[in-house]
Amino acid sequence: MSGHSKWSKIKRKKGATDAKRSKAFSRIIKEITVAVKEGGSGDPDFNPRLRMAVSNAKGANMPKDNVARAIRKALESGSAALYQPTYEGYAPGGIAVFVECMTDNINRTVSSVRSTFNKRGGSMATNGSVDFLFERKGLFTLSTLDKDPEELELELIDGGAEDIEIDEETNEMHVTLAFEDFGNMQSKIEDLGMEPKSASLERIPLNTTELSLDDAKKALALIEALEDDDDVQAVFHNLELTDEVMAQLLDE
Description:
Elements lengths: L1 H13 L3 H22 L8 H12 L4 H12 L10 E6 L3 E7 L4 H14 L3 E3 L8 E10 L5 H10 L2 E7 L4 E7 L3 H10 L6 E8 L3 E2 L2 H15 L4 E6 L1 E2 L2 H9 L1
Parallel strand pairs: 8-10
Antiparallel strand pairs: 1-2, 1-3, 2-9, 4-6, 4-7, 5-6
């Protein structure tokens, strides 16, 4: 988990540009669309996946009108279908990469993802090549403001939390749990009267690989390029971001 979560923190500290914010909104809208179509309801109270998507929209400061518009459009019978293909491959240095996409055109998406791997010194692999190197986990980010962290930790452990990290700089608590406990944790957080800043299902590497600074930068360049693809929802990898690499990346 460390590699993925550390890189997420680096990106937050470097600041979100308007382009990045627009991309985040686009991803959330796609997630809302799929949630409505698969859940068969535009009401978050009766659609857990939609509830998670709406919560993430709030955490990203997405305007309520945008959320409502996305739900209305998803409910329209003529709205385009979205597919959720996944792709696997390797970044420079042999770093395993798992890519989750959401698209209305699979041919366009696979061509774009393959091109990014090739241009950035990586290579695509067949399905199943790196999937076994990751495990599915739930991840919630909560605000610890106005809460007793110790009491909150006990409640979250009762809800199935396996690992809890507190970021004192941002007053956030990052909670990791088993895939099958995601729904239980969602209910526990609601029972506590809290709304998560974000909630997601992640692919956490079972083991991470350490690279030199130069090789790490090459691997991260590929990862960032994939994340910038409009059809890509999430990118997971097993690169170990050492303190040395973290420090130098943040200074750039």
